[in-house]
Amino acid sequence: MATAADFNDRMLSLGLARVAEQAAIAASDLVGRGDEKAADQAAVNAMREQLNRLDIAGRVVIGEGERDEAPMLFIGEEVGTGNGPAVDIALDPLEGTTLTAKDMPGALTVIAMGPRGSMLHAPDVYMEKLAVGPGYPEGVVTLDMAPAERVRALAAARGCATADITVCILERPRHAGMIADVRATGAAIRLITDGDVAGVMHCAEAEITGIDMYMGTGGAPEGVLAAAALRCMGGQILGRLVFHDDDERERAARAGITDLNRVYALGDMVREDVIFAATGVTDGSLLPGIRRRPGWVETETVLMRSRTGSVRRVSYRSPLR
Fold this sequence. Notes:
Blueprint: H1 9-28, H2 36-51, E1 57-62, E2 78-79, E3 86-95, H3 97-101, E4 108-115, E5 126-132, H4 147-158, E6 166-170, H5 176-183, E7 188-192, H6 196-203, H7 206-209, E8 213-219, H8 220-233, E9 236-242, H9 246-254, E10 263-265, H10 266-269, E11 275-280, E12 291-293, E13 296-305, E14 310-319
Parallel strand pairs: 1-3, 6-7, 6-8
Antiparallel strand pairs: 1-2, 3-4, 4-11, 5-8, 5-9, 9-10, 11-13, 12-13, 13-14
């Protein structure tokens, strides 16, 4: 495992921002073209190319799937020049492939990096997630609470009425009961069609985004990415893996997971200091999308380091080639 001295997050952070930027620029050529696979592949190609330029001995722990499902950026793939610190990498080259293909808001490129052994090797299954921002006592809400109970507990901790709470939920048929339960308390719901990493991140800036809590079931890999973001921004996240068949349970076994009912807190998903970068592909509430000007392309990236708690907004302009 890389030591704190080996993992020079300050020096690596700008390189990580470039990885996210180049993936976003590549994907932007496919915005509104109706081809999700092509958009995702463009982002994957660009992200892999940039990662292989970094002086790291990188290993993808959250990626595009297992080796037999993904030809590049698969779980376990080694990236980087090999001439640097051993690091874990969690990535989603294009969070919001449908959003990109349909030119809808909120598509991002997302990547996090930490010392080797620092991140949960979450299998490609679903995860039940619950997140709130900073400033609350530990365990203010739990996965064992009913959705309405969570709203009431958060409102009590905030000192407000349940009607003043806004919950972000992924709009899926499986969440119909949860949505009804939350609305019965008088709380507001912001439904999102995709992009639950951004949904979780919104909780960390409730005074800006208006979102107090995220809940629902989505991809487990995205849960680890969201935890990396919250480790930088502050807040709490809980996750519990959801299995539908023996194949999914076997995936967990291959990832080294033995307790299938375990509830993972933030510190279980991301155990060491990390750096995190996300670049907007299409306009969203978290980041603006790619801008093309005569002769130029412009991006905006959020770049964060958990060690210092720094959150930077990085604007980048590059000549079109």
